[in-house]
Amino acid sequence: QVGQSLHRGNVKELAEMGEITADSFDIIIPDVLDGILITAIKEKTFLNADTVTSVVIPDKVTALPDSCFYNATAMQTVTLPASLSVIAQRAFINCTSLQSVTVPAGVREIGLRAFNNCYALTTADLGACDGLTTLESYTFSECYALTEIALPASLTAIEENAFVNCESLKTVRFGGTEAQWNAIAVSEGNEALLNANVVFGG
Description:
The relative contact order is 0.10. The protein starts with a strand and ends with a strand. It has helices at 8-17, 178-183, 191-194, and strands spanning 3-6, 21-23, 26-28, 32-33, 36-41, 54-56, 63-64, 77-79, 86-87, 100-102, 109-110, 123-125, 134-135, 148-151, 157-158, 171-174, 185-186, 197-200. The chain is globular and about 50 Å long. By secondary structure, the protein is mainly beta. A 5-stranded parallel sheet has the order 10-12-14-16-18, with no helix packed on it. The chain has a 4-stranded mixed sheet with strand order 2-3-6-8, with no helix packed on it. A 3-stranded mixed sheet has the order 1-5-4.
């Protein structure tokens, strides 16, 4: 067996066994369990995990599935691995205590509503994701505290309401040139993004 998936039913059990390092509701998921690599996390693994304050994802995981951390309302930090390429829809929706996120360079897909309703999120760094071309609808909607975001030069489209009600957004750090920024197809409901100060890196 090449790899195994972590799922909702065994998180608590593994923590109690000491297989997952858990201290003060901080969880470090190991690379290996019972001699087998953890290569995936199942949908809704941390659904309604309202006591978990931080999570470290192991290095072989390539995707965070639909609703993986849905309504994990106490989670303040998450450490994402360099191996990650996909953050599925609603992966972090309603993570109302999440304060910041740095998305690894290999991520090429972020699903709709991935960070919707992350009320405490102040910064988001997607600047290294040079394979990311689209921000889906409602990706950061209702992130009321978001003040700064870094976006890659590879972006070509920002779908509707990706930044709706991001009332605090002041700074966008864009990896490309002003011409590249102006060429991005930005759909309706993204006034907060368009009204922010853009710092160009290209």
